[in-house]
Write a structure and sequence with these properties.
Helices cover 40% and strands 13% of the residues. By secondary structure, the chain is an alpha/beta fold. A 7-stranded mixed sheet has the order 4-10-9-8-7-5-6, sandwiched between helices. It has a 3-stranded antiparallel sheet with strand order 11-14-13. A two-stranded antiparallel ribbon has the order 1-2. The protein is globular. Bound molecules: ligand F0G. Ligand F0G is lined by residues 58, 60, 107-109, 132, 134, 190, 194, 223, 225-226, 263, 265, 273.
Amino acid sequence: MPNVKFFSGENIPLEMHKVRMVQRVYLNPIEERANSIKEAGYNTFLLRNRDIFLDMLTDSGVNAMSENQYASMLQADDSYAGSETYYRLESVLQDMFNMQYFLPAHQGRACEHIIAKLLVTPGSTAVMNYHFTTTKAHICMVGGEIEEIIIDEGLQISSELPFKGNLDIEKLKASIARLGKDKICFVRIEAGTNLVGGQPVSMDNMREVSKICRAEGLTLVYDASLLSDNLYFIKTRDPNFKDTDIREITREIGSMMDIIYFSARKLGAARGGGILTSNNEMFMKMREMIPLYEGFLTYGGMSVREMEAMAIGLQESMDMDIISQTPIFVEVLCKELLAKGVPVVTPPGGLGCHVDARQFCEHIPQEKYPAGALAAAFYLCSGVRGMERGTLSEQRNPDGSETLAHMELLRLAFPKRVFTLSQVKYVADRLTWLYENRKLIGGLTFEEEPRVLRFFFGRLKPLTNWPDELLKKFRADFGESL
Ligand code: F0G
């Protein structure tokens, strides 16, 4: 395995960094947590950070930054137009992806907004391995639709396939034949496929998709938000790339795509985002939109300090000792849980450990949001905040019926280089307890349901008094312990 450090028979991950600044966290008693989750409408997005012990909601914008990132913030060149900071960032990105033009935007979904406005026409379809919530919302907002062509195994919980995020080439060809290439607004590859367990896409698959898109004249868009994890898996799971420099891999990815965009809240461990292309016509059209929706071309809605931190973070994402830290922790947690029989997505992916709520809560039907209920129950019994990635995260169909998610997952995200091994063991311990008591978890129903991206603000309530029953059992088993 290239450059990945474990010790003690490959079981214990070695942190290739040391902690030099820390934040105090609190573990409130379960009675307080019961009140907090009730006040949050049983939606972990609505919890307050002060009531959370370990925040595993997401890694977005909460990754630990390096000393070099912080140091770079001091040399930020603060100006509305023509900032040197911008030019530094632009050249890092041009070099990294070998692309000609860069446009700044305040975060990933802002890039999606611009790209959707550029490419999507009403009635057209964006074909992709899998959607991300904000991607789909932006495409639908301008009258488009999405079609998912991930390989079948990508939607199975357990597998040994190394690249479960791959696009199915036969499905791609069938979509082109059925829809006609004029009706396909773009093809999208999402690195480290977020909603199906952080599963990577292989180089061979990208090469094949790119070849087809070039032959058919279809625009290929790459969402590089989860690129670091995907690069780690290319290096460790594809023997052909074991010895290839990570920069070379990234530049080859760049050469296959027409547009690359990313959330720098993930890639680059800062905040912000951006779009790259070498296509002058697309660049000129998108450039018009940046000052309108984001900010002037040399900051695009970002603070210059963040842009400096991002430039350094992007270069650090070319270092295996840095980007391996999340995937090896995910692997350790997944293995501990599997050893106790807790169902998780395999092979372990990037971003976080994904617990299969459909098996965990097999007594709760999808319409009663098993993954949402599991997220609420897990916060209650641990103080750990995860995120529902299932039916709650979908939007209703125009006729009001539910869009049942392919997978019902509780995502326990690993912000990069934030948690310690003992904290990971605590997560495994409490989740195992919850698994043993899973029959006590009940369903949820909406009290307040927003029309768009309902999972962010929606308020729910338990269908029975199951949170009380769970609390009683916790006290019976753990005594006075928190
Ligand atoms: N694409 C992917 C694959 C993402 O994971 C995200 C964000 C976005 C686009 C949007 O970027 O948040 O900067 O606007 N994912 C976060 C998450 C929110 O928690 O997984 P953004």
